[in-house]
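User: Second chain of the day. Same drill as before.
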Amino acid sequence: MSKKQRAFLKWAGGKFKLIEALSKHLPEGDRLVEPFVGAGSVFLNTDYASYLLCDINQDLINLYKIVQTEPDKYIAAAKAMFVPEMNDKEAYYKVRTEFNLTKDPFIRSVYFLYMNRHGFNGLCRYNRKGGFNVPFGSYKKPYFPEKELRAFSEKAQGAEFKCIGYEEAFELTTQGDVVYCDPPYAPLSSTASFTTYVGAGFSLDDQALLARKSRHTAIERGIPVLISNHDTPLTRELYHGANLDTIKVQRNISQKGSARKKVDELMALYDDRYHSEND
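Assistant: Same format as last time:
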């Protein structure tokens, strides 16, 4: 693989560090469909002829469409926010309030990147009313990702972005597609909380439905589906019958920076090698 391309957003659960190992599990095809595009590291570091990139987060998809179609205008506006006087708690909370009040797509997209780079840990989190509620991050000098924005915009000329849920994304797949699913992680234990995914949580029922849809898409329609998740007894049960492999990753599963633990990443590939006796 040539030099890896970083995403322009900071993103929890991003796949940049796993891309070499993950790419080996992706089948060949004409188009890659991602129902959970996130920061887009897989899109940026693969070479399909075209892409259908989906996410349920309207702000994320709106941002990608603007970077795709108006990169120069967007970069100029966003860069103006990355100045010392804006790297301030009071300034951040003023922007966050304005973001939650405005419905203007361009302004929201500019503020979204500002908050992504100035907010705590690059989190993307909303309250039940849909308000962005990530606190200020107090970073010395947040990085403005101009190079990454331009690379994304160039690559995005071969992509279509849709703000839809994973079920609808599967309905848009056709012969020749490959599907890669990077859902919110299943919990590592029964006491661990689920990842908050936009306004609503991604429940265990969603994890199970995603597995069923993936299996159906591969067996009944001949479209291969790769899913990545934590490697746990739960996910192995969910994905039984798929071709399973693991990747060792260094993942921080605690808020304490020193509390790092090796957690395997499970790769579950549904394709024509799935056998009914595994069901």
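The longest strand covers residues 260-270.

User: Great, on to the next one.
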